[in-house]
Every structure is written in structure tokens, then in C-alpha cells.
Specification:
single chain; alpha/beta; TIM Barrel; 8-stranded parallel sheet; 14 helices; about 15% strand; globular
Length: about 300
């Protein structure tokens, strides 16, 4: 079988990366000086993860310079892993750290595109948390989306259907602007919720989506619509969404014809790069070498069909 370095050497996309948590723990620790006890470790779900964020990482990020440093570390660690396209999520909530200076906030993202040109194609993504102040989202999101800086949007938070109608105007605006539309669903929710989110928001891609594997009809639905699922196996295992890597449904999704890429999600918490996750899937006979090459190619093919990249 191919070794880890082989997978690092291949071009790849990371289309599921929250940039404020997208770096190795060692990178973060060297900068922050704030150790997190018994970390990284397996967790019992998102509540435990959010508790760690509230106790340790959020208090350390206080200024716009802190936000810039976190994003910079994440991009650098992606480059080291051989990622050639990074669709990295910048949370809209960090506007607060920029004292709501939209021009400065947008310039930050644009500067990263220029800074790392030739090393990685960085596509800024606007991250929208369901639990964030909706008045501020309504105030900031449309202008940020119209700026031309952001190439996609991603809605995340509790994977429930209640209240998603409050975000429909954002996805309609994204459609008009030609931005790629993503949302988190199906890591802890079922197949029905995955299909509902895709239909309701007319999603181009699903962040996670592994719940779809519970229903062959939903897998066929995703395959027919060519909805890409950016799954994060190590996240799924570390958050106890699946019992083990050997039991991960990625193979079933691939065999059903669902376009799949591998994402890091939050490298700080899960400690496995894009390449290492793919290597582990092959090493543990979850997928074949041919499957691995297929899913890596899928991400790169999306580059050719992305609607608004300028």
C-alpha cells in the first residue's frame, strides 16, 4: 500500500475547514501558551467540544490580530499537508473582533488569497453560525457576500430543522450571486434531515452528510443531484458520531455514487490532516486505493465547475 507521504504529495482539496480551529495543536500551543488538558482526546459529542472552546480557545482570541494569526496558522498547516485548494470558513462572528469594520474584515481575507498565491488556492468561505446574533447576520452577511471576496457560504450549528427558514434569504442571495451553498447536517442527524436541508436551501454541498447512509433512497437522491458531501472521518470518530473508523459509511456513500471529499473540520481538535485521514481509510481497509484516488479527484474536479471564482 502507498505510504502517507504519497497522499501528502498528491493535489487535494479541503472543502470543510473552520479556520479558527484549523491548525495542529502544537502550532496553536506555541502561539497561545495556553495548554488544553488531556488534548486532543475523544469526546462524547459537540457539547463537550463547545465546552473546551468556551474554556480555552475563545478567551484566547480577543483581537483582530488574534483572528489573523489563527487563520494564518491554519492555511500554513494545510499547505504542509499538500492541500492545493482550501475552502476555509471565516466565521461572521469575528466581525466583532474587527470592531465591525467591514472593509478591514474583507481585506484580511483578500490579503490571505494574495499572500499564499502560488502555494495554495485559498477560497474564503463565509461561516454562519445558527446561534449567532441573527440581527448582526442580517446586517453584515448580504454586504459581505456581495463583496466578491467570499466564494461560498456555510451554515452550521445544531443539526435541527426548526428555525432554518430564518436563513433562507441568505441562500437565495447566494444563489443570485453565484456563491457555492453549503450547510452542516447529517453528522448527528438522520437521512431525512440531509435531504430536507439540500432541498430547502438548494445546497451544492453538504458538510458531513454521513446520516444519508441510513437510507439508500437519500443516497440515490444525493447521487442524482450530484450533491458533494465533504465528510470528516476523524471528526466523526472523535465526536462519537460513529463508533470507529472501520464502521464509517464513506465506502457506502462512494459506492452509491455520491461525490465525496475528505475535510479536516477542526484540525486543532481532531489532529488528523486531510492526507492522514485518507491514508488511514485505506490502511484500515475502509476504502480501496482506487476509492481514495476517486474521492481526491472529485474535489479537484469541482475546481473546474465552481461558478464564481473571480
Amino acid at each position: 500500500m502507498k505510504d502517507l507521504q504519497y497522499f501528502i504529495s498528491l493535489p487535494k482539496i479541503d472543502a470543510h475547514n473552520h479556520l479558527n480551529l484549523g491548525m495542529h495543536y502544537n502550532s496553536y500551543l506555541a502561539w497561545s501558551g495556553v495548554p488544553i488538558p488531556n488534548f486532543p482526546r475523544q469526546m462524547s459529542g459537540l457539547d463537550e467540544m463547545h465546552d473546551i472552546i468556551a474554556r480555552y480557545t475563545r478567551p484566547r482570541c480577543k483581537t483582530s490580530d488574534d483572528v489573523i494569526k489563527l487563520i494564518d496558522m491554519s492555511i500554513c498547516d494545510a499547505i504542509k499537508d499538500g492541500v492545493t485548494i482550501l475552502e476555509g470558513s471565516i466565521d461572521i462572528g469575528f466581525m466583532v473582533h474587527f470592531k465591525e469594520d467591514m472593509e478591514k474584515f474583507l481585506r484580511m481575507a483578500s490579503d490571505f488569497v494574495v499572500k499564499y498565491e502560488g502555494q495554495i488556492e485559498f477560497r474564503p468561505e463565509l461561516g454562519l453560525g445558527k446561534t449567532f446574533d441573527k440581527k448582526k447576520i442580517k446586517k453584515w452577511a448580504p454586504e459581505l457576500m456581495r463583496s466578491g471576496v467570499y466564494k461560498s457560504i456555510d451554515l452550521y450549528g445544531p443539526e435541527i430543522e426548526d428555525g432554518i427558514e430564518e436563513f433562507s434569504y441568505i441562500f437565495k442571495e447566494a444563489e443570485i450571486l453565484g456563491l457555492k451553498k453549503k450547510a452542516h447536517v447529517g453528522e448527528f442527524s438522520n437521512a431525512h434531515s440531509v435531504q430536507h436541508f439540500v432541498e430547502f436551501f438548494d445546497l451544492d454541498e453538504v458538510q458531513h452528510g454521513i446520516g444519508a447512509a441510513q437510507d439508500d433512497k437519500v443516497l440515490q437522491f444525493l447521487s442524482d443531484r450530484k450533491v458533494q458531501c465533504n465528510i470528516c472521518p476523524q471528526s466523526n470518530v472523535m465526536l462519537s458520531a460513529v463508533k470507529s473508523l472501520e464502521m464509517h459509511p464513506v465506502k457506502k456513500m462512494l459506492d452509491a455514487g455520491v461525490p465525496v471529499t475528505i475535510g479536516t473540520d477542526d484540525l486543532l481538535f481532531f489532529d488528523h490532516t486531510n492526507s492522514r485521514q485518507i491514508f488511514n481509510l485505506v490502511a484500515q481497509n475502509v476504502i480501496t486505493q482506487k476509492d481514495a484516488e476517486k474521492l481526491m479527484a472529485t474535489g479537484l474536479q469541482k475546481k473546474k465547475s465552481a461558478r464564481t471564482l473571480s
